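Field log, afternoon session.

UNIT: design team B
ACTIVITY: writing a sequence onto a fixed backbone
BACKBONE:
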C-alpha cells in the first residue's frame, strides 16, 4: 500500500510540467483588487453624498444611515452581478478557528412568474444565519439560538470565485441577540477604537492634529506543501493536520540547504497562482521564500490596518489550502505537521499609525519626535510586561504546544528583544531621566537625535517571542494555524491600558505647567525601571534564560493547559472590561471554548492514533513477524541455525507486543470523565499525550525494521523530499 501511493506520487510529479500552471495572466498591478468593491469602485458607482457618508463611517467610525446602506447595497450588487455573481454571503469569524459563510441568492421571484435580482440595504447590514451550531461558550442558550451578522464597512466586500460560481462576500461581525460578541472581529474592532482614543490623547500633548490612530499588522505565514497523494494516504494528515506516526528520515534539515533555497517549479507555479488570486482579492502579498524545514515555505503581505489584515490573513490561509490540489499538492497549516523538523509559525508584525501618515513606532528625526517614539515604545514594553500572561494565552493551542519552547520556536516565556541599540537608549533613559529630575534634561545627551536604527533582518534573534524590528514589534510566538485576531486584540487592549496610564501622568504634569518633553523625561525612567525585566536580548533557547526568567518573576507557562487561565484571569477580565473590548461573560465564553477546543483536538488525535495503531501499524508488524518467523522456521527445518534471524524475530515480536500494549493503554486512557473541562484538559496533557508519545516511539522503532513493501504509511523521507 505504501509503495502504491509512492508510485502514484512519483508518476504525478513526473507528469507535471510548468505548462500546466493555471495562474491567470496579467500584470499584478492591473489585476490587483479587481475582485474587490474597493474605494475606486465605490467612488465610481456611488452618488457623491453616499460615497462621502460611507467614507465618514469607514474613517471615523460614524454610524451609517439606512438610505446610505440601500444605495451601497444597490451599487455593490450591480458591480457583483456584472462580475457574474449570483449570491451574496455574510462572511464572519465565529469562535471556531475558521470563517463561516452562508450563501443567499440575489434572486427574488415576482408575482408575474419571473424574477429580479435584488439586494437591499437591510440585507447588506444585517444577516441572521442559523447560528445554533456555532460555539458560543454559553453566551447563547439554545432556545435563543439567534445570532446576527453585521456588516463591517471598514473591510471591503469582495467576490469569491469557487467551483464555477461567484459570490459577493460581505465581511461581518457576529453578535448575539443581546449584542454580545460571538466572533473575533467585534472585539478586534472594539480594541482598535479603544487604543485610538488613548493614543490620540498622547499625540495631542505632543501637538499633533491626529484624530485617529490605527493599529497595523503584517502577518508572515509559514506552511508546508507535500504531494497530495501522500496527504490523502495518511488519515492523520487528513483528520488531524499532522503526522501522528513517522520515523525521522536519515536526512532532515541538518544540512541547512533549504532556507531561502531555490523554490521547486511546481511549488513556484502554485505560489504564483495563489498570489494572483490574492492580488485580485486585494490582498497585498509581497514575499515568498523557502523556510528552514524541508518542504516548508512562507508568504507575507504588506501590512494593513489590523482588522483588514486579519480578514486578509484568513483569506490567505483559505487560498493556500484551496489552490494546492490544482497542483497536486496539499498545504499543511498545522504548527507541527512533522516531528523532528521545524514547525510553522506566523510572525505578527504590529505597529500603530496615525491618520497623518506617521508610524508611531518609527524613531523620529529630532528630539521631540524621539521622545514621542520612546513614549509609545515604553507603552508597549509596559503592556507586554504587565499582560505577558494574557499574550501567552492568546497563542496557546494544542498545536502550538509542539512548537513553543522546542528549540526551533520562541520559548513559552514572553520577553522582548529590543536590540542592543534601543536597549542602550532605554538604559540611558532610565539613568538620564533619574538625573533629570534633579538637574534637568540629561536625556538629550543620550537620545538627542536617535541614530537611524538598523532594520532587523528578521533572523537576528529568532529565539525571541516578541522583538522590536526597527519600526514595529514582531510577535513571533503566534502559530501558523490560528487567526491573528486574539493576539491582536490582546496586544491592542494591553497597550491601550499603558497608553491610558501614560496619558494620565503626562496630562497631570503638563497641566501643572511642565513641557510634555520634561513630563516624559520624568515619567519614562519610572516606566522602564518597573518593566525592564521583560527585556531580554540573549538566547531564548538556553537553559540559563529559563532560570534567569524565573528569577525575574516572568511567567513560564509551558503548555496550553497552564496558559489558558491567563485569558480569563481577574486582571485580564478587568482589562477587557475597562476598555469595553469584552465583558466578563464574553471573556469566559471564549475561555471555555479554548479549553474545550484543546480537549477536542487532543481527543481526536488520540482516537486517530489508536485507530491507526490497530488498523495500519499493528497488521504490518504482525505480518512482518510472521514472515521472519517463517524464515527462521524454514532455516531450522533445513537443519540450519538462524541466529541473526532469531534475534530479528525476537526484536520484532517484542516491539509488536509493546506496541499493542501501549495502544490498549492509550485507548483505555480515553475512557475518562472529569468534573470540569479544565480537569479533563489536565488528563489529556498528563496522561493521554504522554501515551501517544510513547506509542509513537514504538511505532517509529518498528518502522525502522519493517520492509518498505509492508509499511502502510507514507514515510517522512518520501513526504518531505519527493517533490
Ligand atoms: P522582516 O521580518 O525581515 O523585518 P519586513 O521588514 O519586510 O521583514 O516586514 C515583515 C512584515 O512586517 C511585512 O508583512 C511588513 O509589511 C510588516 N510591517 C512593516 N512595517 C509595518 C508596520 N508599520 N506595521 C505593521 N507591520 C509592518
Ligand atoms: Mg520577520
Amino acid at each position: 500500500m505504501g509503495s502504491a501511493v509512492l508510485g502514484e506520487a512519483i508518476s504525478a510529479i513526473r507528469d507535471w510540467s510548468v505548462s500546466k500552471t493555471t495562474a491567470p495572466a496579467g500584470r499584478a498591478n492591473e489585476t490587483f483588487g479587481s475582485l474587490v468593491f474597493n474605494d475606486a469602485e465605490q467612488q465610481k458607482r456611488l452618488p457623491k453624498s453616499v460615497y462621502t457618508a460611507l467614507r465618514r463611517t469607514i474613517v471615523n467610525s460614524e454610524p451609517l444611515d439606512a438610505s446610505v446602506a440601500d444605495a451601497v447595497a444597490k451599487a455593490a450588487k450591480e458591480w457583483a452581478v456584472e462580475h457574474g455573481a449570483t449570491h451574496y454571503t455574510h462572511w464572519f469569524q465565529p469562535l471556531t478557528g475558521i470563517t463561516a459563510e452562508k450563501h443567499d441568492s440575489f434572486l427574488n421571484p415576482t408575482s408575474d412568474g419571473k424574477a429580479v435580482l435584488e439586494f437591499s440595504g437591510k440585507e447588506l447590514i444585517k444577516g441572521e444565519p442559523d447560528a445554533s451550531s456555532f460555539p458560543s461558550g454559553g453566551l447563547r442558550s439554545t432556545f435563543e439560538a439567534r445570532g446576527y451578522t453585521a456588516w463591517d464597512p471598514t473591510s471591503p466586500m469582495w467576490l469569491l470565485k469557487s467551483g464555477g460560481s461567484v459570490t459577493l462576500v460581505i465581511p461581518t461581525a457576529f453578535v448575539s441577540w443581546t449584542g454580545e460578541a460571538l466572533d473575533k472581529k467585534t472585539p478586534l474592532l472594539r480594541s482598535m477604537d479603544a487604543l485610538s482614543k488613548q493614543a490620540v490623547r498622547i499625540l495631542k500633548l505632543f501637538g499633533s492634529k491626529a484624530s485617529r490612530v490605527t493599529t497595523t499588522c503584517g502577518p508572515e505565514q509559514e506552511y508546508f506543501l507535500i504531494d497530495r497523494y501522500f496527504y490523502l494516504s495518511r488519515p492523520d494528515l487528513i483528520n488531524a493536520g499532522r503526522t501522528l506516526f513517522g520515523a525521522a528520515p536519515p536526512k532532515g534539515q541538518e544540512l541547512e540547504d533549504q532556507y531561502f533555497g531555490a523554490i521547486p517549479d511546481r511549488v513556484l507555479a502554485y505560489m504564483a497562482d495563489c498570489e494572483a488570486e490574492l492580488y485580485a482579492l486585494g490582498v497585498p502579498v509581497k514575499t515568498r521564500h523557502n523556510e528552514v524545514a524541508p518542504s516548508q515555505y512562507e508568504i507575507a503581505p504588506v501590512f494593513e490596518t489590523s482588522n483588514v489584515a486579519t480578514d486578509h490573513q484568513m483569506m490567505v490561509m483559505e487560498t493556500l489550502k484551496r489552490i494546492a490540489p490544482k497542483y497536486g499538492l496539499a498545504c499543511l497549516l498545522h504548527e507541527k505537521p512533522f516531528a523532528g523538523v521545524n514547525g510553522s509559525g506566523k510572525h505578527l508584525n504590529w505597529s500603530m499609525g496615525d491618520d497623518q501618515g506617521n508610524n508611531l513606532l518609527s524613531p523620529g528625526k529630532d528630539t521631540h519626535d524621539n521622545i514621542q517614539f520612546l513614549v509609545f515604545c515604553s507603552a508597549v514594553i509596559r503592556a507586554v510586561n504587565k499582560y505577558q500572561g494574557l499574550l501567552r494565552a492568546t497563542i496557546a493551542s494544542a498545536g502550538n504546544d509542539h512548537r513553543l519552547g522546542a528549540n526551533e520556536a520562541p520559548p513559552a516565556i514572553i520577553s522582548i528583544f529590543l536590540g542592543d541599540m534601543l536597549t542602550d537608549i532605554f538604559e540611558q533613559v532610565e539613568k538620564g531621566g533619574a538625573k533629570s529630575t534633579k538637574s534637568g534634561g540629561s536625556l538629550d545627551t543620550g537620545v538627542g537625535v536617535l541614530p537611524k536604527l538598523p532594520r532587523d533582518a528578521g533572523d537576528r534573534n529568532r529565539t525571541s517571542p516578541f522583538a522590536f524590528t526597527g519600526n514595529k514589534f514582531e510577535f513571533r510566538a503566534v502559530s501558523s494555524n490560528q487567526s491573528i485576531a486574539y493576539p491582536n486584540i490582546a496586544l491592542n487592549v494591553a497597550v491601550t491600558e499603558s497608553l491610558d496610564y501614560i496619558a494620565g501622568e503626562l496630562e497631570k504634569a503638563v497641566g501643572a505647567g511642565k513641557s510634555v518633553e520634561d513630563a516624559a523625561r520624568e515619567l519614562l525612567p519610572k516606566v522602564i525601571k518597573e518593566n525592564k525585566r521583560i527585556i531580554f536580548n540573549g538566547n531564548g533557547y538556553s537553559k540559563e534564560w529559563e532560570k534567569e526568567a524565573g528569577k525575574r518573576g516572568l511567567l513560564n507557562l509551558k503548555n496550553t493547559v497552564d496558559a489558558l487561565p491567563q485569558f480569563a484571569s481577574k486582571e485580564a477580565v478587568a482589562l477587557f472590561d475597562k476598555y469595553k473590548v469584552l465583558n466578563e461573560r464574553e471573556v469566559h465564553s471564549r475561555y471555555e471554548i479554548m479549553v474545550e477546543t484543546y480537549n477536542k483536538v487532543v481527543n481526536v488525535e488520540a482516537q486517530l492514533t489508536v485507530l491507526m495503531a490497530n488498523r495500519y501499524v499493528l497488521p504490518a508488524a504482525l505480518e512482518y513477524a510472521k514472515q521472519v518467523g517463517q524464515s527462521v522456521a524454514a532455516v531450522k527445518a533445513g537443519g540450519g541455525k538462524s541466529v541473526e534471524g532469531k534475534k530479528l524475530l525476537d526484536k520484532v515480536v517484542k516491539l509488536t507486543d509493546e506496541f499493542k500494549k501501549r495502544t490498549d493503554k492509550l485507548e483505555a486512557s480515553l475512557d475518562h470523565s472529569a468534573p470540569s473541562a479544565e480537569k479533563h484538559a489536565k488528563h489529556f496533557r498528563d496522561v493521554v499525550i504522554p501515551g501517544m508519545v510513547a506509542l509513537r516511539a514504538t511505532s517509529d522503532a518498528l518502522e525502522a525494521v519493517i520492509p518498505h513493501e509492508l509499511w502502510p504509511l507514507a514515510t517522512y523521507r518520501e513526504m518531505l523530499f519527493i517533490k
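LOG NOTE: The first strand starts at residue 85 and ends at 92.
NEXT ACTIVITY: expression trials, pending approval
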